[in-house]
Amino acid sequence: MLLADRFHQEVFTELDCLDCANCCKTIPPILNDNDIRRLSKALGIKEKEFFLKYVRIDEDGDQVMAQTPCPFLLENNHCLVYESRPRACREYPHTDGSQFTENLKLHAVNAYHCPAVFHILERIEKQFGSS
Ligand code: SF4
Ligand code: SF4
């Protein structure tokens, strides 16, 4: 197992995302066409309606959730559309398996938003600092 993957497993065993939800509160997830199709179906509305209500195009030209905090975040930090949530939400914070090395630049930014990324990077730094 890769070192980063081991730290990912460790940190997510210690941390409960339901005590945090900072990603859902601060980072609008990218929505691909499949996400929009799946979410519209789950909500029982037409894709066009979903698009008008929940989607905006960001500065990179990506379709993202229009509001932050996410409109599907509930008061208890659960996700109203958990089973149908966007792929970006499923994969965040991209520290699992091969995603870690594919997203190195992102981790530096995400460390400011996500305590899990912060702790994973901290453990990696400590590991290399002590060897
Ligand atoms: S910001 Fe990180 S630790 Fe917090 S809920 Fe999101 S993934 Fe979990
Ligand atoms: S769809 Fe769910 S998991 Fe994704 S940002 Fe919104 S509340 Fe969070």
Can you put this structure into words, describing what you see?
Helices cover 51% and strands 5% of the residues. It has eight helices and two strands, in the order H-H-H-H-E-E-H-H-H-H. The chain has helices spanning 3-14, 22-26, 33-43, 47-54, 87-91, 99-102, 104-110, 115-129; strands spanning 55-57, 63-65. A two-stranded antiparallel ribbon has the order 1-2. A hairpin with a 5-residue loop joins strand 1 and strand 2. The longest helix is centred in the C-terminal third of the chain and has 15 residues, at 115-129. The radius of gyration is 16 Å and the shape is elongated. The site of one iron/sulfur cluster has 12 residues, from helix 2 and helix 8.
What brief labels describe this structure?
single chain, 131 residues, mainly alpha, two-stranded antiparallel sheet, 8 helices, 2 strands, 51% helix, elongated, binds iron/sulfur cluster
Task: Give a topology summary.
Elements lengths: L2 H12 L7 H5 L6 H11 L3 H8 E3 L5 E3 L21 H5 L7 H4 L1 H7 L4 H15 L2
Antiparallel strand pairs: 1-2
Helix pairs in contact: 1-8, 3-4
This protein binds iron/sulfur cluster (SF4) (2 copies).
One iron/sulfur cluster binds next to helix 2 and helix 8.
* Count of runs of 4 or more consecutive helical residues: 8
For the secondary structure, the number of strands is 2
Strand content: under 5%
What does the largest sheet look like? 2 strands, antiparallel
Strand order of the largest sheet: 1-2
Structural class: mainly alpha
Looking at the structure, what is the overall shape?
elongated
Distance between the termini: 19 Å
Q: What series of H and E elements makes up the topology?
A: HHHHEEHHHH
* Percent range of helical residues: 40-55%
Question: If you average the pLDDT, what whole number results?
Answer: 95
